[in-house]
TrEMBL record:
Protein name: GP46-like surface antigen, putative
Transmembrane segments: 21-43
Keyword annotations of the record: Membrane, Transmembrane, Transmembrane helix
Keyword Metal-binding belongs to the record: no
Organism: Bodo saltans
């Protein structure tokens, strides 16, 4: 039986805890990096305040216009009309950050009609996805106010115009 010898210089038990080599590969780091980058992607990047910005305090009017302009009652998963005024940030497909609308994702929900210009009031909007619906007409010029948007997807609709 060996006795433990304490090395005062290294402050460890040499016999009990022999040094080991640890190998860290990309396979170990990659999932962690993906998780961190994903979380950072959902963190609000801009915290400027604009007088014309629609906050969740007054966004119910904008959501009502969106609902009406796109035949909301006929969506495949329609919003509860009462929630538009009482809990707009709790609506399916809506994500808020603080008092601002951060993301609108209504892809493939059966929206029919036009994109309301009032959506341009959500100046803190980071993502908007209205893909795979039946929207028509032109994209409103007011959407150019969305200066912090990272994701814009209006694909698979009958829209014309550009987003700039």
């Amino acid at each position: 039986m060996s006795s433990l010898r304490r090395n005062p210089e290294r402050r460890c038990f040499e016999d009990a805890y022999p040094p080991q080599q640890v190998y860290v590969t990309a396979a170990h780091i990659l999932p962690i990096m993906i998780a961190v980058l994903t979380l950072l992607g959902f963190w609000p990047h801009h915290h400027h305040h604009y007088a014309h910005a629609a906050s969740c305090g007054n966004c119910s009017r904008v959501f009502q216009e969106l609902y009406d302009a796109t035949r909301g009652a006929e969506w495949t998963s329609a919003w509860n009309v009462n929630d538009i005024t009482s809990n707009p940030c709790g609506l399916t497909g809506i994500v808020c950050s603080g008092e601002s609308v951060y993301s609108i994702s209504l892809a493939g929900r059966g929206l029919v009609g036009t994109v309301p210009a009032s959506l341009g009031q959500f100046v803190f909007l980071n993502a908007i996805d209205f893909s795979m619906n039946s929207l028509r007409g032109t994209l409103p010029h007011e959407l150019s106010r969305l200066s912090v948007v990272d994701l814009v997807n209006f694909s698979f609709n009958a829209l014309s115009g550009s987003f700039s």
